[in-house]
Amino acid sequence: MTVWLVDFLNKIFPENANNNYSGNRIALWALILFLALMTWRSAIHMFFEPFGLHEIANIVVLAGDPDPMPLIYRFFSIWGFAQLIFCIACWIAIIKYRSFIPLMYLFWIFEWGLRVIYYPFFGRGGDVINDYNTAGTPGFYMAPYILILLTIFFVLSLRRAN
Predict the structure, then answer these.
(1) Residues in Cβ contact with 157 at an 8 Å cutoff, skipping those fewer than 6 apart
(2) What are the phi and psi torsion angles at 133 (to 5°)?
């Protein structure tokens, strides 16, 4: 392997898990702010399912007998819980294992990058709005911009601070 590839992999997968972060401090603070927003988002999805589902994700209320919404709210809450677990892992990295910050950025890039690919190309016929929602989600509209910012901060997290 070439030297730059070994160096790159060592920055993403450090030999020792420790609190020594050698990347740019702007990338550290950007991750903290981004993670605060993602933790808030996760809590909304987990604890305030109707608000998160209808007011933010723009999903319409489905009618039926029996009422399908309690089951849908539970699944939405579980999704919020999964997001929260991911956020907790990132908070642990920030607090105790900062050497993993580039890896945390890479995980977020994968998540938001998949949104950029999935929603327009593999969604229901590529439609943002369909029978089940009134508008696209903030995650759909913001994904390209967030992906660009995450990529910039990922690169900054790999660079040695001056």
Answers:
(1) 23, 24, 27, 28, 31, 101, 102, 105
(2) -145, 160
DSSP readout, 62-124? P--SS-SHHHHHHHHHHHHHHHHHHHHHHHHHHHT-GGGHHHHHHHHHHHHHHHHHHHHHHSG
pTM of the model: 0.87
Q: How far is Cα 48 from Cα 82, in angstroms, rounded to an integer?
A: 15
> Worst-scoring range by mean pLDDT, 16-20, 30-34, 81-85, 157-161?
157-161
Helix, strand, coil shares of the chain, percent, nearest 5, are 70, 0, 25
Q: Which position has the token pair 């020594």? A: 20
Q: For residue range 40-91, list pLDDT tens digits in order.
A: 999 999 999 888 888 888 888 888 999 999 998 999 899 999 999 999 999 9
CA 161 vs. chain centroid, Å, equals 25
> CA 41: distance to chain centroid?
10
